Amino acid sequence: MGKSGFVALVGRTSAGKSTLINRLVGSKISIISPRPQTTRNRIIGVKNGPFGQVVFIDTPGIASHKSTLSKSMAHAAEKAGAECDLAVFLANAERPDAEADKAAMNRLGMLGPSSPGAILAINKTDSVPKEAILPQIDALSKLRDFLDVVPISAKTGENVDTLFELILQKLPEGPAYYPEEMATDQPERFVIGEIIREKAFLRLGQEMPYSVAVEVESVEDKPDITVITATLFVERESQKGIVIGKGGAMLKVIGSSARMEMERRLGCKVFLDIRVKVKEKWTSDPRAIRGFGYGSAEG
């Protein structure tokens, strides 16, 4: 029996939680884009080794705006934070904002007497001068007692091993919760849908990605190819035209890059058929949000 426990990665949007969980687990289980609120679900990543088993939970970032989708995502993050053995609060070294981080901690229940133990990780230190990090550490350390404080770069891997060692020190001895070969708890269809959504996020304009949802209708394994049918949803007819592009050019680029990643992940040829449909104001509709499986219907 080795070290065992659940560790929630929490913080504001664009703090780098998805990049960090991929780095810690050693494989891509959570999609990444420069757009805020890319992660919409609680996603588990399992790291096994001689030390035992650590279950990391990638959570949606806490944002200031109050749409139904944002509230749903925040609720998913709050729930993960409350149920974990340890939390790692990620702060963004590129955009220090102690008040916004305080608001996020408060929303996550990290400022109360019954809050779980937490490590403060200042992320993206590869892109700022080292001396610029100290005032941020000082400001955030005044908000609550952190078990440890560590500057890291999830992108380059700097100090991520140190962070992991600190996490292990704080976790108890216990059993493995998941099979050793398991890297994530998400089903294949969810992963496929997330790949499509990531490629759309990377190629669409600043506002568009927030209105994009993906539903995978079918995954059919044939002898020499996997046939996947999916629908990419937007909120307005004008957005549908943007996603498809002139002569279908944008959708072709999104589909091609998604297909190539799927082939690498699945280890086989993939035929990918993506359609684009409009679901009016779905980000404000709790039933639609539930249907897409994003965040939580509560909040």
In a nutshell, what does this entry contain?
By secondary structure, the protein is of the alpha/beta class. Helices cover 35% and strands 23% of the residues. The protein has two domains: 2-174, Rossmann fold (3-Layer(aba) Sandwich), CATH 3.40.50.300; 188-292, K homology (KH) domain (GMP Synthetase, Chain A, domain 3, 2-Layer Sandwich).
Order of helices and strands: EHEEHEHEHEHEHEEHHEH
Instruction: Fill in the CATH topology of the largest domain.
Output: Rossmann fold
Instruction: Tell me what portion of residues adopts beta-strand conformation.
Output: 15-25%
What characteristic shape results from the CA principal axes? globular
First and last CA, distance: 38 Å
What structural class is derived from the secondary structure elements? alpha/beta
Could you tell me the radius of gyration in angstroms?
Answer: 20 Å
The number of domains is 2
Number of strands: 10
Q: Could you give a short account of the major beta sheet?
A: 7 strands, mixed
Within CATH, the superfamily of the largest domain carries the name: P-loop containing nucleotide triphosphate hydrolases
CATH architectural arrangement of the largest domain:
3-Layer(aba) Sandwich
DSSP helix count?
9
In helices, the fraction of residues equals 25-40%
Given as residue ranges, the uncertain stretches (5+ residues, pLDDT < 50) are 33-38
